[in-house]
Amino acid sequence: MKKIDDVGRIGLRSMLKGMLMLAVFAAAVVAARKAGLDDMLGNTQWFTDHVLGRGPLSVFIFVGVCMGFSALGLPRQLLAFLGGFAFGMLGGALLATLGCGLGCALASGYARFFGKKGIVRRFGPRVQKVDRFLSHQPFTMALALRLFPLGSNFITNLAAGVSSIPLLPFVLGSSIGYLPQNFIFALFGAGMNAESRTGVILSVGMSIALFVASGLVGMAAYRRYRAEAAGVVDEG
């Protein structure tokens, strides 16, 4: 019972943190509009032309930025929000997920091949914890871990890199697990470009509802897979 209660408390903190991020992003957009930047905020073409570049190049630049910054620990929710703002809900979510998945591969690959000694020395207990959790089924455990985000994405990537698990299923599971929240934050970012106040309110409401729902689903998945990893739930 204690473990379940712990998961519930962690899940609540995770959802509150996500809600706070949504509120901060919304406040930043509102503040920019109040500052007279409506033309910039209301025109995604301005953003792609002046920030990302023109034409197809903007896609590659955005994916590269997501890869680099997510590998360094920048919250992927912010990247998805910017993706939704620049490329719309679906395009932003998919591009941010691709970039964050590549960032996961970059960080964990660096840890495995170049920084293993220093990372083990710095994060030894966390490395052991991640290794125990992921070693059962790296793909499904990584998926559960990302659906129900715990702790630092950056540290998890480094810990996985120096653990004994194969990196490919970890990166694939992580990338798929990133998608639900990236979709929600991209929806939120796209909604900030809505022309009417009603459209903005609807997008915000949908984002909040989907975020809470995804958090509950992620919590349930994490509980199940953690129980499987501990041998509590029979396989099959």
UniProtKB/TrEMBL annotation:
Record-level GO cellular component terms: plasma membrane
Domain of life according to the entry: Bacteria
Keyword set, alphabetical order: Cell membrane, Membrane, Transmembrane, Transmembrane helix
Pfam families: VTT_dom
Keyword Transmembrane: yes
Family: Belongs to the TVP38/TMEM64 family.
Subcellular location: Cell membrane
TM region(s), chain numbering: 56-74, 81-108, 167-188, 200-222
Protein name: TVP38/TMEM64 family membrane protein
Topology within the bilayer: Multi-pass membrane protein
PANTHER family: GOLGI APPARATUS MEMBRANE PROTEIN TVP38-RELATED
Domain VTT intervals: 74-190
